Amino acid sequence: MIPSENADPIPSFSEDLNTWEKFKVIVQSILRTLLGIIFIAAIVAFVPNSVDGAIWIPFGAIILVLVIYIWYFRLQLRRIHKSKYPNIQAGEALILVATMFLAIFAVTYDLMSQANPDSFTEVLTRFSAFYFAVTVLATVGFGDITPVTTAARSVAMLQMAIDIAFIAVAVKIVSGAASSAIQQRNPKSGATDK
């Protein structure tokens, strides 16, 4: 994109705001992030965790969640470009996109556990499935929940492989969007929002 001559320069968070204004921006960011996490939890709550005869329903729901994920990621990138403080918006976007990414694997693990209770060392709930997805992302591997079947191990390995790329690609895309927004509004100064 070519920088607009009429674009407003991005105010510097650290220099242009007083303490109260900074506090307000941070609280608004935290509230937006929490609302985003609640939105993601609501989507996950609607995915059925029973595979009683209609296996297409939960897998159809996973595909729907993947479509929503792509839409949501693109929405976050647009929000960064339009934001008054792109770097703050980028931080929100990373948290929300990572939460949604983990939610997709949590739902998958939960469905696998419900379909075959022997898939993991314990039958997973939505919460324990999310916990397991986070431990796989963090490569912590406490050992309290482990995949047992080949299918469960395969999905865990897939998550591990995607995690490596996801972290690098998501950070690059989101930070690139923030940098692009800043450069479009401040083309000569090359200033960044800190």
Could you characterize the architecture of this molecule?
- This protein has 194 residues and is mostly helical.
- It contains six helices and no strands.
- Helix 2 (19-45) runs parallel beside helix 4 (86-115), helix 3 runs antiparallel to helix 4 and helix 4 crosses helix 5.
- The chain is elongated and about 55 Å long.
- The model is unreliable at 1-6 and 189-194 (pLDDT under 50).
- Keywords: Membrane, Transmembrane, Transmembrane helix.
- It holds the Pfam family Ion_trans_2.
- The chain crosses the membrane at residues 30-47, 53-72, 93-112, 124-143, 155-178.
Q: In the CATH classification, which architecture applies?
A: Orthogonal Bundle
Number of helices: 6
Overall mean pLDDT: 80
Q: Mind summarizing the main beta sheet? A: none
Terminal CA distance reads 23 Å
Strand portion, in percent?
A: under 5%
Q: How would you classify the helix and strand content by structural class? A: mainly alpha
Oligomer: single chain
Share of helix among residues?
Answer: over 70%
Encode the helix/strand succession as letters: HHHHHH
